[in-house]
Amino acid sequence: MAMAIQGIASTFVKASDERFVYMGRISRANPDVVAWTYPGVQIICRFTGTSVSMKTNPGSGFYIVQIDNREPFKVELKKGVETLSLAKNLDGGEHDLRIIYAIEGHGKKPVFHGLFLDDGAQLLDPPSLPERKIEFIGNSITCGYGIEGNGKEKTFYYSLQNFCLTYAYLTAQALQAQYHVVARSGIGVYRNYMGKIPEQIMPFIYPHTMYTTKGEQWDFSLYQPDVVCVALGTNDTTGSYTVNGLTGGFRRFVAQLREHYPTAKIVFLVGPMMSQKRRADLKTAQQTVIDEYAATGDNAIFSFEFQESDKALGMGSQGHPNAAHHAQMAQELIPYLSQLMGW
Predict the structure, then answer these.
(1) What three-state secondary structure class fits 146?
(2) Among 9, 220, 293, 343, which residue's Cβ finds the most Cβ atoms within 10 Å?
(3) pLDDT by residue (tens digit) across 235-250?
(4) Alpha-carbon distance 174 to 172, whole Å?
(5) Could you tell me the pTM of the whole model?
(6) CA–CA gap between residue 337 and residue 179 (Å, rounded)
(7) How many Cβ atoms sit within 10 Å of the Cβ of residue 263?
C-alpha cells in the first residue's frame, strides 16, 4: 500500500464538527476530540479542496485511508508526528474520505483532533451509514493479529495487524452493514490466554467505552446491533480450563448481552485455530447455553463453526490466520449471516 506524503494544509476542522461521522465505540469525554481503543473505528466525511491532512496524537499507530474510489493505503502516526498528509494535488471538487483504525489501540490510546483542509475548503454534509448493524466481540483473530505476517514472526508487531483484512471487516462490507468491534488479543469469556490478567476478561471490560475495567461507561443506546457475533473461547481453552467454567462464562456473558440487546440475534463463532478436544469442549459449552435459553423461549442464539485451519493458505504471525485465510472465513460467514438475517 502506498504511504501518505508529509505536508500540512491550512484550514483546521475539529473532530467535534457535526459533519464528521464515526463508526465504533468512541469517547467524547473531551468535547474537542474523539478517542477510542478498539480496532476498526472509522472516521468518515466529505470535503472540498485539493489536499487533506490528519491530526492525531503522536505514536497512535496505523490507519487505513481511502479517498474517493482510490485504492486504500496504510499510514502510521509515529512518535513525534501528530499531523500527516493523507493527500494533495487532488482535483478541486468534492471528495469522500474514510479513515479506519487498523490496530488494537489499548497501548496506543489514539485521539483524533481533526483535519487540515485547503484555505477556503470545508466539510460537506456527511454520508449516511448503512441501516444494518453488526457487533463483533472477539480476540486476536477479530483484531487481525499478525494478519500481514508470514508465519515466521516470534513476537507481536503492530505493523502486521490490519483490521481491514479481517473476516469481520470483509463480512460487514459484503453485507453492507455498520459494525462495532469490542476485541482484544488474548481475551476470553471466562479466562484470558493461559489465565493471565483475570480481571480483564471480556465481561468485565465490555460495559466500558474503552478497553478498561473502570472509567467511562458505554451508552448502549447509541448502537443497537441486529446481530452480535461472539468470537471467544480460543484463549479460554488454553492451559488449565474446565468445561463448566467455560459454560458459566458464556452463560453470564449472554445474560449481559441480553440486558443491553433484548432482541438482537447472538451468534457464537467457533474459531479456526480450535481443534480436537478444545473445539469439542467449546461447542459443548456454547450448545449448553443455547439450549438453556431456548428452554426459556429465547430462540435467537446460534452457533457457527469456521472450518479448522489446515494451513493450506499459509499462516500469519504466531499461528494466526493470514489475510487469505480471513478472506476464506468471510466467505464462510457471509452466506450464513445473510440467510440468518434475511439480508
Answers:
(1) coil
(2) 9
(3) 999 999 999 999 999 9
(4) 6
(5) 0.95
(6) 13
(7) 8
